[in-house]
Amino acid sequence: MQVIMQPAVTGFVQASALVLVTQRIETINRKARKLGLEPVTFKVGEQRIVCNALRYGDNRPRTEVEVSIFGEQPRLAGGWKLLGVVDHREALPIVWNVPGHELPAGQRERGAVCDHCNAIRRRSDTFVLVDEAGTVKQVGRQCMGDFLGSTKTDPVAALNVWRTLFDVLSGEEIERHGSAPDVIEVRKVVKLAAALVRTYGWLSVTKAQMNNASSTADQVRVLDNPLSNAYARLSEDIKPNLTEELEREVDVMLEWARHSALTSDYMANLKALASCEYVRLDKVNLLASLPASFWRAEEREVVERAKLAARQSGYVGEVGKRVTMTLTLTAEPRRFDSAYTTFLHEFVDAQGFVFTWWGSSPATCVDLGWVVGEAREAKVTIKKHEEFRGFKRTVVTRVKGL
Questions:
Q1: What are phi and psi of 248, to 5 degrees?
Q2: Are 163 and 125 in contact (CB under 8 A)?
């Protein structure tokens, strides 16, 4: 049976940058050979022609090629392998994880301590390593050579080149056009990202690459650079969403991130960035995801409240009567296909009573301007009272927003 090797990382790069990628891979392999490690290989895949002003600064067509990297990240002397790198330069630690790995609970909170020299001092970063037995150690940059017992070459350099490889393929090292400062205000990033998501929807770096589009983070960088060719168009597009209401919501988003539960390294990184006033430009990708994460969390909270309310609620109104009430949409409409297609809209009122409305189109609420988590006044007709899987709910029809 043929074994199909899965690439460690895949991405599209500009054809003219292929030489750079090749040089990165050669650098990794040189370091690997000096350490007695297996080299990585790469494969160039399909080509595509793109016009992406947000990424490259103008609309000239460019050729991009798909590059897939095969192989494991360098396994160091003594069987140690990298789990992640903790950046201590910000007010709170930022973690770079090796894809597919998370740091053990409590690791990031340890501070800039080194398990080799046991000294706590000012460090830019520390390396979190794991051996084959699962033992985890945090080692400072200056102690890596002594800890690994290797004097052939600098193991930190090998790991850093490996990290840079991911950055190259994810577009982190694409040259920016025009001049820009080395740091950016945290609140500005969140506000611009929120306005962009309201205008175009959220688009991650990975999905942007797959769809030959510009990520939300790329668009934030453009809006931070007035000399960019796409600055004027983007500024005009998001202007309707730069409202006082959004300003207030940005404050809420930042407070949410600063006080959120640390359920993952991602949330811990968000908390660290939200606690800063300014961040380096290499943190924009992560920080730009804050509004989308906040709105998803809001939606989950609304749904959970609705589920709890359903267990405690009863029925509302008299069947056949036309009434006015304030309802909150708890989830995106769900499609059901039988003799004909219908879409289930679910609501909850301020007292926790649950309502359902069967519509012929998922755009029904959109046409009314109703979004998940929003409470709106509406006129409805009570159609019937029913119990579904032990939950009481009031079915309404002829819903009209006021």
A1: -65, -40
A2: no
Rounded Cα gap, residues 242 and 199, in angstroms? 10
Nearest to 66 by CA among 46, 40, 91, 96: 46
Give the other-Cβ count within 10 Å of 238's Cβ: 21
CATH match for 313-401 among 1.10.10.10, 1.20.210.10, 2.40.50.140, 2.60.40.1220: 2.40.50.140
Spatial separation of the C-alpha atoms in residues 229 and 299, rounded to whole Å? 36
Residue 177's alpha-carbon distances to 171, 232, 271, in angstroms, are: 14, 15, 30
Cβ atoms within 10 Å of 107's Cβ, excluding its own: 19
What pTM was computed for the model? 0.48
Give me the phi and psi of 259, to 5 degrees please.
-115, 15
Q: Which tokens go with 162?
A: 């490996």
Q: Are 162 and 74 in contact (CB under 8 A)?
A: yes
Residue with tokens 């998922």: 362
Instruction: For the beta carbon of residue 291, count every other beta carbon within 10 angstroms.
Output: 25
Angle at 385 between CA 384 and CA 389, to 5 degrees: 130
Domain boundaries, the chain: 9-70, 77-149, 183-296, 313-401
CB 85 within 8 A of CB 163: yes
Helix axes 265-274, 244-259, angle to 10 degrees: 120
For residues 401 and 368, is the Cβ–Cβ distance under 8 A? Answer: yes
pLDDT tens digit at each of 402 positions of the chain:
333 445 566 777 777 777 777 777 777 777 667 656 667 777 888 887 776 655 565 566 777 888 877 766 656 677 788 777 888 777 677 777 766 677 787 777 788 888 888 877 788 888 888 888 888 998 888 888 788 775 444 555 556 556 655 655 654 443 333 334 467 888 999 999 999 998 988 888 878 777 777 889 888 988 887 767 778 888 889 989 989 889 899 999 999 988 887 677 888 888 888 888 888 777 888 899 999 999 888 877 776 766 666 555 678 888 889 999 988 888 777 777 666 778 888 888 877 788 888 877 765 565 666 777 788 888 999 999 888 776 788 899 888 876
Name which of 102, 97, 73, 85 is nearest 8 in CA terms.
73
| Nearest partner of 35 among 84, 70, 79, judged by Cα | 79
* CA–CA dist 274, 243 (Å, integer): 21
